[in-house]
Amino acid sequence: MAKRTARYALLSVYDKTGIVDFARLIVSLDYKIISTGGTAKVLSENKIPVIPIQEITGNPESFDGRMKTISFQTEGGILFDRKNPKHIKEAKALDIKPIDIVVCNLYPFEQTIANPKITFADAIENIDVGGPTMVRAAAKNFRNVLVIVDPKDYQRIGSILSKTSITETFRQKLAAKAFYHLSFYDSQIARFFNKELFPQELSIALRKKINLRYGENPHQKASLYMYPNNNSPLNNLKRQWGRELSLVNITDINAGLESLRFFREPAAVVIKHNSPCGIALGKTTKEALSRAIEADPESAFGGIIVINKNMDLATAKIIGDFKDLRRSNIDIVAVPKINQNALGYLKKIRKSMGIYTFGEIYQKRKYQENIKWVNGGLVIQTEDNHLEKGFKDWKTVTKIQPTKKQLTLMKIAWNFISRIRSNAVIIVDKNLPMTRGIGSGQTSRVRSTKIALEQAGKYAKGAILASDSFFPFDDSIKLAAKKGISAIIQQGGSINDKMSIDTANKCKMVMVFTNRRAFWH
């Protein structure tokens, strides 16, 4: 009987989780283990026989560990085709050991750069070179070599190896996972090195966070992916009670977070279909939420509530009152934290209502670009942040100057409108930091004005009207005047600005130009 050719497995991992048990298993299956530095040390300490990598390469580990596995012998043992007689002959002549399993995970570049105090030199030392080379070679030769990059796969693969052979379909799946892993790893390095605003070639590193209940509609599947090392509240989203999230729930929560990100004082928003139907500030979260619901209680039905401060029982009872007095329900509540009394109370309000916490809302994101997906690709733009820096460019263009209160409410209105779908026109209460009417997502600015004024009703008298761009004609100004609007804030810049200014002066209204547009699509 012909002697069986020795089989080799190369194990070189930074994350040692589960590696000892997996190594024991493959040794029991007659694999000889080749290993490097730290991995070899751990295996030897656990009485697992190891062939040091230098016995294969013929060279010592050198240059502070920068050179360990890269060699003709290592990569040749991984890459040669076991089904090609010419390759087999060459491998035998060159004394190349057939490496049939490669288990490798990489230097922790992601964790390294997460430290804000990390030096550039230390970051560079955590760029893995040998690991990706082995992984790439094994993934290319997946029909002959099993490549494993995720410790979570050890148990499943071990179970299959113990009973039968690995199918080519599963091998290819592992190879795809390996290439994704390499791409993810390299994308982070490129991003760390990059100093250009818009590089010529771009890969985006994302990691799956959760599988969603469904997509935009129940027949669509969806998952949430997040950047590594981001400071988004969505990364810390935790279900406390109720329904799992759909794509629309996630995008609604995100829209709520965007609406509140500029405010330090207690703020609340009710979101429907990615757009606010009521935003408000208050001295307390209870006051802010009460105002946000009051802004448009009809639209708030089935909406999502997002608050920028922790939820207490008094705030939770506003949701209970909304159900009791208006027979209306809320689908999702998302807050930084919620105390147990408030959580217990809301559980009794509606069993299916989702209650989520997300931690702190950071005013400054770690990643500043804004991405819009289009058919076949995406558009990347810089973020529309630091709205307060634009306040110095505001100009009162009417004879009547804004009062201090009006100017304060105008600034709040401008922050509100910057995260409402364009074309947007909103009405802000004459005394309170809350919306009274929102017209958004319309193809006509005058139609947005009509919707906002109609919704505001009696509260339009003396209120602030804000438009996220200029008014091309004075028709919206005239509509505002008829409803008693006292002050208008808009971009300005239309060829008909003089017409709008003259109308505002005639109607004894204040009008301020921001000289900056606030579209949000």
What structural category arises from helix and sheet content?
Answer: alpha/beta
How many strands, which pairing sense, and closed or not: the largest β-sheet? 6 strands, mixed
Highest CATH level, the class of the largest domain? Alpha Beta
- CA-based shape: elongated
Mean pLDDT: 94
The amount of beta strand, in percent, is: 15-25%
Q: Helix content range of the residues, please?
A: 25-40%
How is the largest sheet built, in terms of strand order?
Answer: 8-13-12-11-9-10
Count structural domains. Answer: 3
Report the span from N to C terminus.
73 Å
Low-confidence stretches: none
Number of helices: 19
Care to count the β-strands?
A: 21
CATH superfamily of the largest domain: Methylglyoxal synthase-like domain
Based on the coordinates given, report the CATH architecture of the largest domain.
3-Layer(aba) Sandwich
Radius of gyration: 31 Å
What does this structure look like?
The chain has 521 residues and is α/β, with parallel strands linked by helices. The chain folds into three domains: 7-193, Rossmann fold, CATH 3.40.50; 237-357, 3-Layer(aba) Sandwich (Cytidine Deaminase, domain 2); 394-513, Cytidine Deaminase, domain 2 (3-Layer(aba) Sandwich). The protein contains 19 helices and 21 strands. It has helices at residues 19-28, 37-45, 53-57, 72-79, 85-93, 109-114, 120-125, 130-140, 154-163, 168-193, 247-260, 285-295, 297-300, 313-326, 340-349, 404-417, 445-456, 475-482, 497-506; strands spanning 7-13, 31-35, 51-52, 99-105, 146-148, 207-211, 223-226, 238-241, 267-272, 275-281, 303-307, 330-335, 354-357, 369-374, 377-382, 395-396, 425-428, 435-439, 464-467, 487-490, 510-513. The strands form five sheets. The protein has a six-stranded mixed sheet with strand order 8-13-12-11-9-10, sandwiched between helices. α18 (475-482) links the parallel β19 and β20 (487-490). The longest helix is centred in the middle third of the chain and has 26 residues, at 168-193. It is elongated. 37% of the residues are buried. The model has no long low-confidence stretch (mean pLDDT 94).
